[in-house]
Amino acid sequence: MGRRDELRGAFGERVLEGISLARFTSSRTGGPADFLIQARTVDELRQTAVRLWAMGESFRVLGGGSNVLVADAGVREVVIVNEAGRVSFEPGDLATRLVAESGASLGGVARRSAERGLTGLEWAASVPGTVGGAVVGNAGAHGGDIAGSLETAEILQPPDRTEAWPVERLEYAYRTSWLKRHPGSVVLSAAFRLMSSTPEVTRARVEANVTARQRTQPQGASWGSMFKNPPGDLAGRLVEAAGLKGTRRGQAEISEKHANFFLNRGGARSEDVAQLLSLARERVQESSGVRLDLEIELIGDWPEPTKEALA
């Protein structure tokens, strides 16, 4: 029995073949997934991951599709698209516990909290992507981040072990975590402890953060921040100082507004973006002596020279 037949036997019509991942990424780029399965609930997400582990199938969970650059040649792993997005609020005497499934929009969760007058996630209202991706990558903005906001995360590990991890166990650092450094686990949900404020105060903070983002960052299809900020400096400042604002390869462009954002001007190929990443890293090294590390993650079937250049 071939791979296709085994997956069909295990998941039936839930298995989709040759689906372009561009529709599942914030940049609207990327080639096809050989096999794609959508998980609409946490139970489906857990059952799908456990079954794939039992079959010996490697897989990748894709949420909002930000901060990833999918190869033009596509992805040979099974792609699970995480659409588990339930959110619940559990009021307590001193604080409210917010539990969000990992496929929920982080920005959406933050805005819903603010509407209730709950404080602690206002920084996240303008951050793209899902809760699960944010937990793995320690997403942050406006002086806040997941490490400073999370209480626990429900983590699934092979072959079928689910545990609630306290934030300390995730070993957070700037834009990384134990989960990111040790791929292979699945985030099912996350819990945050939020304090009571007033809707007027929390809405004002959200609006201020959204306005700041619109003022300083470009609109349109993008990957989010491309490089991590080096210690004591800003990646965008370094790329701008290297004279690269507005540089294009095909339909991919280094933003004129913020040089750590690359834009898809319509029909950009991932290889074009990879060339811009290599160029920016090389020019910044030459002009400033700083080696920039990628914040985005390359996934899929990339040519070895490209992977080596961006390692």
Please give a structural write-up:
The chain has nine helices and 18 strands. It has three domains: 3-82, Uridine Diphospho-n-acetylenolpyruvylglucosamine Reductase, domain 2 (2-Layer Sandwich); 87-215, Uridine Diphospho-n-acetylenolpyruvylglucosamine Reductase, domain 3 (2-Layer Sandwich), CATH 3.30.465.10; 219-309, Uridine Diphospho-n-acetylenolpyruvylglucosamine Reductase, domain 1, CATH 3.90.78. The protein starts with a helix and ends with a helix. It has helices spanning 3-11, 42-55, 106-115, 131-137, 178-181, 199-216, 235-241, 270-288, 304-309; strands at residues 15-20, 32-39, 59-62, 68-70, 75-82, 87-91, 96-101, 118-119, 140-141, 144-145, 150-157, 161-166, 186-196, 222-225, 248-249, 252-254, 261-264, 297-299. Helix 3 (106-115) packs antiparallel against helix 6. The mean pLDDT is 96. It is 30% helix and 28% strand. Strands 6, 7, 8, 11, 12 and 13 form a six-stranded antiparallel β-sheet that branches. The chain has a four-stranded mixed β-sheet with strand order 1-2-5-3. Strand 15 (248-249) and strand 16 (252-254) form a beta hairpin. It has 311 residues and is an alpha+beta fold. The protein is globular and about 55 Å long.
